[in-house]
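Here is the promised in-class demo. Please do not try to memorize the tokens; focus on the logic of going from shape to residues.
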């Protein structure tokens, strides 16, 4: 998926950098980042795993709403379904970019039209697809337990 470039300015060290980002108002389109700096894109409308885990998250948490609290749990759980990056780091849905100078995530940003859109590979679920239903339940329960749910 091609994503437009944004210019980020660090509020900590005033450093600037350019990287792809999902524009505001893009419904169902997400960018996932790993701690090692790799990125993956997600179109939630076509990714079958995005919907597959909804009943698992509801069963584990008891949360039957469709509010922001459920969305936060769902996004945390979804990250566990994605294949890791080249360094075996997990992709995190909603992770903010970090300043390459000081590692801060306190940033301002604006579209940067001088750079063409960047192709960002889509998330993959090869490992997830090999799991049994019971194993999938365990993976989701584990990630939600780790995050304090």
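The designed amino acids, position by position:
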């Amino acid at each position: 998926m091609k994503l437009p470039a944004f210019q980020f300015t660090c509020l900590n060290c005033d450093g600037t950098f350019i990287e792809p980002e999902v524009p505001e108002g893009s419904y169902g389109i997400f960018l996932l980042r790993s701690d090692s700096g790799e990125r993956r894109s997600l179109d939630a409308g076509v990714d079958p795993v995005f919907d597959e885990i909804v009943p698992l998250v509801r069963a584990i948490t008891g949360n039957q709403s469709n509010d922001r609290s459920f969305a936060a749990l769902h996004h945390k759980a979804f990250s566990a379904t994605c294949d890791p990056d080249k360094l075996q780091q997990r992709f995190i849905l909603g992770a903010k970019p970090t300043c390459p100078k000081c590692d801060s995530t306190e940033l301002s940003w604006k579209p940067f039209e001088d750079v063409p859109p960047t192709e960002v590979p889509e998330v993959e679920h090869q490992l997830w697809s090999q799991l049994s239903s019971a194993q999938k339940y365990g993976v989701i329960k584990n990630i939600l337990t780790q995050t304090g749910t």
